[in-house]
Amino acid sequence: MTTTTLIKNGVVIDTEPEPVVLGRADVRVEDGVIAEVGPDLPGVPGAEVIDATGRIVLPGFVDTHRHTWQAAIRAVAPDVDFPGYMRRIVGELSVRYRPEDVHIGNLAGALECLDTGVTTLLDWSHIQRSPDHTDAAVLALRESGVRAVFGYCHGGDTAGLAGATRRVRELLPDASGLVTMALAARGPEIAGEEHALAEWRLAEELGLPVTSHLGHSPDGAGAGLTFLESNGLLAVPTTFVHALHYTDEEFKRIAGSGGSVSLAPVDEMNLAMGYPATGRARAAGVPTGLGADTVVCAPGDMFSLMRTIHLLERGRPDGAGLGFTTRDALRMATIEGAEVLGMSDVIGSLRPGKQADLVLLRTDALGMSAAHDPIGAVVLNADTASVDTVLVAGRVVKRGGQLLHHDLATILTTLADSAAAVVGT
Known about the structure:
By secondary structure, this protein is of the alpha/beta class. The chain has 2 domains: 4-59 and 349-401, Roll (Urease, subunit C, domain 1); 61-340, Alpha-Beta Barrel (TIM Barrel). The protein is built from 14 helices and 17 strands. Strands 1, 2, 3, 4, 5, 14, 15, 16 and 17 form a 9-stranded mixed beta sheet that branches. Strands 6-7-8-9-10-11-12-13 form an 8-stranded parallel beta sheet. Strand 7, helix 3 (131-144) and strand 8 (147-152) form a beta-alpha-beta unit. Helix 2 (99-115) packs parallel to helix 3 and helix 2 (99-115) crosses helix 14. The longest helix has 17 residues, at 99-115.
């Protein structure tokens, strides 16, 4: 029996091939899949009807890089630089994490995504201190109801890499569920060439895409890219996280390899890593998405990221970014983010046949009312309070401004207890 949901009378924004306002229209969802988009769609007997009057309807946001487990240490290092982050978070706090801390961090972090309209995230998980830590992270993603790519990062030596990664692959063997897998590689700039070689070759063997912090160092960016190319490793779909220090010619090489880029603009600026290369990467033809990265020193919502990337690109000192528009920012947060994750045939737009990952934003507030350009309003005016309703694969996970399916009071209490245990306050 077909389950039908009809979203009526919203101002609809689609994003493929480019963001466009369709005007007042309806969206029909059947068995979790977008079936039709258009004005005045006929009613369907037995359908659930969601009245979107006074709402903007658009595809759910896609976060292409987030260390989700860090939800319990939010703002623990708001003014730190990158070396300070490595010392405080990776060196001091991560070693205190128990499996239960990973579970509640991932669960709360994933629910934060849903609450703010992020329906898909790449969870770059470098808290794999034991198999129990890994199991806790995956379980939390599944419990949350978010669509997620679990980026498994093996923090140990090369000898243990293959066995540990194969174990996770057995937990997430294919793309049939909401939670799938990528290999989060430490890469040549962090772990060295020998370890990177083992990571990419293992990813190829297991049929996994790779996501890795690449190009974040001005000294190692070019050499790391050349290493990957010379060893034929870029035949594996690879996301270059941060990608701050590549030349225009190097971005063209990344584009030619089929690679993609994930930018975390707030984090990159706050940690003094470098100025996001948004326009240069996209001009070279590299699909480029956005990521919150870490809430220890950055916000966790896509509205902040879209505004920041729009501001930074248009405000480039050379004036070369003035062609970047709010439509570009929204594209990066939706369909282009889906391209980065290799999921553009599944999510990221309202094309019939795609999964119904949808967000309804309120316009009946002073900060969103009387907006002449709905796309401009989404990027420049909307915030987390605007998120009224969220669907993942057609399932309503937030309605009327409230998350469903979870005991939030208990989750928040458990998160606070975890924070006290990890940070010691």
